[in-house]
Amino acid sequence: MNFIFDNDRPIYIQLVEQLEIYIISGQIKSGEKLPSVRELALKTKVNPNTMQKALVELEDLKLIYTERTNGKYVTKDQKLLDKFKDKYAREKTKKYINEMQELGFIDPEIIEILKEESI
């Protein structure tokens, strides 16, 4: 896991976003046990309280769950993972299209660029 933070937004929100990407992309597998809060905090060079706050958010989103004495695990709910992946892809696509339109491209030109780049 390689985390990069910017100073414009709270670190825990950036942790949530980056862990979400690791989960929905399969870099952290469905059903996989997560390292402890302390281990994750050390790996990401953040305060354990900040990491705990991010993990609570991921748990609220149902992307991870806690087994009382065994630790935290990534959800096994593939439909939920697919839903998050689709949502993320749509957000990225909308952002890309908006940025291209700001540069003066029209939709057919954007589509053509995408076709050329996907080959």
Can you describe what's shown?
The chain folds into 2 domains: 11-76, Arc Repressor Mutant, subunit A (Orthogonal Bundle), CATH 1.10.10.10; 79-117. It has a two-stranded antiparallel ribbon with strand order 1-2. Strand 1 (64-67) and strand 2 (71-74) form a beta hairpin. It starts with 10 loop residues before the first helix and ends with a helix. The mean pLDDT is 94. 13% of the residues are buried. The protein has helices spanning 11-24, 37-44, 48-60, 78-102, 107-117, and strands spanning 64-67, 71-74. It is mainly alpha-helical. Helix 2 (37-44) crosses helix 3.
Summarize the SSE layout with pairings.
Blueprint: H1 11-24, H2 37-44, H3 48-60, E1 64-67, E2 71-74, H4 78-102, H5 107-117
Antiparallel strand pairs: 1-2
Helix pairs in contact: 1-3, 1-4, 2-3
What's the number of extended β-strand segments? 2
Q: Architecture of the largest domain, according to CATH?
A: Orthogonal Bundle
β-sheet strand percentage? 5-15%
Which segments are poorly predicted (pLDDT under 50) over 5 or more consecutive residues? none
Strands side by side in the biggest sheet: 1-2
User: Could you say what the CATH topology of the largest domain is called?
Assistant: Arc Repressor Mutant, subunit A
Helix content: 55-70%
Helix/sheet category: mainly alpha
